[in-house]
Design a protein that fits this description.
- By secondary structure, the protein is α/β, with parallel strands linked by helices.
- It folds into two domains: 19-122 and 199-315, 3-Layer(aba) Sandwich (Rossmann fold); 132-189, Orthogonal Bundle (Histone, subunit A).
- The chain has helices spanning 29-36, 64-69, 86-102, 114-122, 132-145, 147-157, 159-164, 170-183, 211-228, 230-239, 255-263, 268-290, 304-315; strands at 19-22, 41-45, 72-73, 106-111, 203-208, 296-300.
- The chain has a six-stranded parallel β-sheet, with helices on both faces.
- α6 crosses α8 (170-183).
- It is globular.
Length: 317
């Protein structure tokens, strides 16, 4: 949802309520939002792929019908050729939240990109700013040798970041190597602030389901993506010039097709199986990261009433 009318921004105050709602793909965030978060709430999207226009089915983007019921921000705000950094998310989310407050509504930050939540709450590390020349040199290396070569360099210079960063996350790999080449220190050596920004004190809700149920839901979700036209969406993107280097193509549901094109694999069933497998692995990483957060209210996604009571008790304080 685009903000059509700009209003005078105000500072986020401690008394303003803010809700974090996170969990992996297919856990049931959208259903929860439409069932119990209507009327008073607006959503700030915290999914790194749903920010891109044209990436609807593979990113499991909420429908226009859902957005009519619950207003959403930071969806369809960029072409998939542009990078959307954590710093970009913080800036845009801050603007969205102030607009939501000005409209007399309560913001819910919802999605599955863990670093968005962490850095929105605590801010960015004190690592040096981007060095355009160093970044350009790294991009040249990637074009010549592939992202795998830079990932191996990261392993040598910053093993901690190497372990934390997914091998398909080209932006964060580049950024970590860039920081090391800029200042001679690993990115992991720069600490993240320990106290929340702007005196934020959000209600943090983490959704979960048991492993067997999640596996079934993920497989069902991928099959539904196929029925909704995922293959046609991929073909359209390719006709528009999409390739594996586009930031938007790094997401699960898209990267598998470009990997298959690289290897010459043609079976759509095998590609879909890989999407399911990658989704399962990603869900495990999401849970691991989210469990590092403090004061998380872990809730079974099926317990709508308990979640509703939790929200009402928070808002009544």
């Amino acid at each position: 949802m685009r903000i059509l009318k700009k209003k005078k921004l105000k500072t986020i105050q401690l008394s303003n309520k803010l809700i974090f709602l996170f969990g992996p793909t297919s856990v049931g965030k959208t259903k929860l939002l439409t069932d119990i978060c209507k009327d008073r709430f607006s959503v700030v999207n915290a999914d790194s792929i749903q920010v891109y226009r044209g990436l609807d089915i593979g990113s499991a983007k909420v429908s226009a019908e859902v957005m009519k019921k619950v207003p959403h921000y930071l969806i369809d705000i960029l072409p998939p050729t542009e990078q959307f950094t954590v710093a970009d998310f913080i800036k845009k989310a801050d603007e969205a939240i102030v607009d939501i407050y000005n409209r007399g509504r309560i913001p819910i930050i919802s999605g599955g990109t863990a670093f968005y939540f962490k850095h929105f709450l605590y801010g960015l590390s004190e690592a040096p700013p981007t060095d355009e020349k160093v970044r350009a040199d790294i991009e040249k290396e990637i074009k010549s040798n592939g992202i795998e070569s830079i990932y191996q360099i990261l392993k040598e210079v910053d093993f901690t970041s190497y372990q934390r960063i997914n091998p398909n996350d080209s932006y964060r790999i580049q950024r970590a190597v860039e920081v090391y080449r800029t200042c001679g220190k690993p990115l992991s050596s720069f600490s993240v602030p320990k106290t929340p920004r702007n005196n934020m004190d959000p209600l943090i809700i983490g959704l979960y389901r048991d492993n067997e149920e999640m596996a079934k839901r993920l497989k069902l979700r991928v099959n539904l993506m196929l029925q909704e036209g995922l293959l046609d969406e991929i073909k359209t993107l390719i006709r528009e010039g999409a390739d594996a280097s586009w930031p938007g193509m790094q997401g699960i549901g898209y990267k598998e097709f470009f990997e298959a094109m690289k290897t010459g694999e043609q079976s759509s069933s095998q590609i879909l199986e890989r999407i399911v497998l990658n989704s399962k692995h990603y869900a495990k990483r999401q849970y691991t990261f989210f469990k590092s957060f403090e004061n998380v209210n872990w809730m079974d996604a099926k317990d709508d009433e308990k979640i509703k009571i939790l929200i009402e008790n928070y808002l009544s304080k």
